[in-house]
Amino acid sequence: MTEVVVAIDEEQLVARISNLIARAADDATSRDDRIFRFGVSGDFRNFYIFIFTSLHAAAIFVAENAAKDYIKKMAFFFPPDRLPRFDCLLLGLGQDGHTCSLFPGHRALDDENMWVTWELNAPKPPPSRISLTMPVINNARMCMFIVTGASKAETVKRILRDKEDLPATRVEPIDGTLFWLLDQEAGRLLNSD
């Protein structure tokens, strides 16, 4: 199921995002293992999340090794014999239609053999990146695109109205829900023409 919400203002957008994350967390923690598996795409180099447990310093690897290392870390939380199932993934959208460092026309977009893939020639900095693969993204219980700003309006239209084959268009949870949460500017072209 896909739901598109064009919020009337920032307050409504933030409230909707918060409510959906809370719902996903409540659903996850009511299941047997009581674990909320939450993923966020995007550049978080300037964000620090403080978890009050012992953390080990992350080693810096080249992209391929970083992807393999990330898979090992994920294996602690997901059974190794099947695709990881995130409870909620927050996704962003690039003007070229990319999401999660999966760019149009790049090898990583079609990687279906691993949980995490790598990109060495991303068309925007940084050139070396890692990303969840499309099969893992589409195995999530809930995916939420959060898109704001007039600069994304044309891309949103190309994906949601025109169904153009872009990486973000390929996000279609198999047994889950997809939300497109847009501000007025990002959603302004959906009802035009």
TrEMBL record:
Pfam families: Glucosamine_iso
SUPFAM superfamilies: NagB/RpiA/CoA transferase-like (SSF100950)
Domain Glucosamine/galactosamine-6-phosphate isomerase: 62-180
GO biological process: carbohydrate metabolic process
InterPro entries: 6PGL (IPR039104), Glc/Gal-6P_isomerase (IPR006148), NagB/RpiA_transferase-like (IPR037171)
Protein name in the entry: 6-phosphogluconolactonase
Source species of the chain: Pogonomyrmex barbatus
